Known about the structure:
Layout: H1 3-18, E1 33-34, H2 35-44, H3 51-60, E2 66-68, E3 74-77, E4 98-103, H4 107-113, E5 123-125, H5 129-137, E6 142-147, H6 149-154, E7 160-161, E8 167-169, E9 177-179
Antiparallel strand pairs: 1-3, 2-3, 4-6, 5-8, 6-9, 7-8
Helix pairs in contact: 1-3
This protein binds ligand HQG.
Ligand HQG is lined by residues 63, 65, 80, 102, 106, 109-110, 113, 115-116, 118-120, 124, 135, 139, 166.
Amino acid sequence: MSKRIVTISKFMSKYLRHEPETLGLKLEPGGWVMIADLLEGAGKLGFPITEEELLQVVAENDKQRFALDETATKIRANQGHSTSVDLQLVEVEPPTELYHGTVRKFLDAILIEGLKKMDRHDVHLSKDVETAAKVGERRGKPVILVVDSQGMASDGYQFRLSENGVWLTDHVPPMYLRLMEDS
Ligand code: HQG
């Protein structure tokens, strides 16, 4: 992926997840915006992007962060929002366990308060240890927490699955968390 495409991807994450209003956008239910409006807003802000570049970002993005609607006129970020949005994801039965990658300095707080959304719209969980390790590595040496998602589900907690395979929930209380050995 070229440097330009990575830069555009970061630009799109910023405005589709965090501050759409700066580009004159309002997220529709599901998090969608018109591609034409996004391109126009980017141009006005002094960061012109072509439609071809935008489509290349959607297609090549390493984590499939963006999706087009079925008419390919709208785009959204699949997850990662901080701005208020209803992604209209349906509740899904989670696997037995899910994983969360973090770093040691957050552990004390997490084991007391559980996993919180912090600045995001949801708590993000990974379906496998490898992915969780990559998430944790963004901040240092990763530490993996195992989430008893089956236990949570049977206690009535809801899970949603983003289009790019990230599991989302509101809060993971500490009783459902255990530190993975060797992490
Ligand atoms: C920690 C990236 C103290 C939590 C990734 C994490 C993911 C607490 C940080 C996605 C806490 C929040 C999300 C508590 C949680 N006390 N710290 N009670 N509860 N934390 O970035 O899960 O590249 O908002 O462990 O790959 O790291 O953006 O969440 O370290 O999929 O597409 O607070 O973002 O994807 O950090 O990452 P984040 P995350 P993208």
